[in-house]
Fold this sequence. Notes:
single chain, alpha+beta, 2 helices, 16% helix
Amino acid sequence: xxxxxxxSRIHSVGVFTNAxxxxxxxxxxxxGPRISPKEADRLYDGAPRTYLYGLExxxxxxxxxxxxxxxxxxxxxxxxIDEIKGRAxxxxxxxxxxxxxxxxxxxLYDDEAPAPCHCGSSKCRGTMYSPEWMRKMRRxxxxxxx
Length: 146
């Protein structure tokens, strides 16, 4: 499959496919140097944008580079990320037509900085944070008012 980076209506640039992709297909690896959460904080504290992905082990962050890092967020994605043996892969959630932008739900967490979503989907929740993280933040704000 041929993947290309080109301008995106969602944000700056995105990754598009030039050929159809079947549901369940492994599309691209989310790759880059592995760093610790402490190193990620040191490198990117206050940065307006990062390409970090935390692995399930809780101690490894991928400092994304390459095609995988350029997939944009959507609240109605056509891809998802999954770990296999310590590697993060992007898979197709459904059949994807040639010409479509590849999108996954970032489900951000562990921060309080604004992360507005501009995906344009009718399912847009207005933020790139996960629903679980947003519930936690609402509970925290409610407790602070008491």
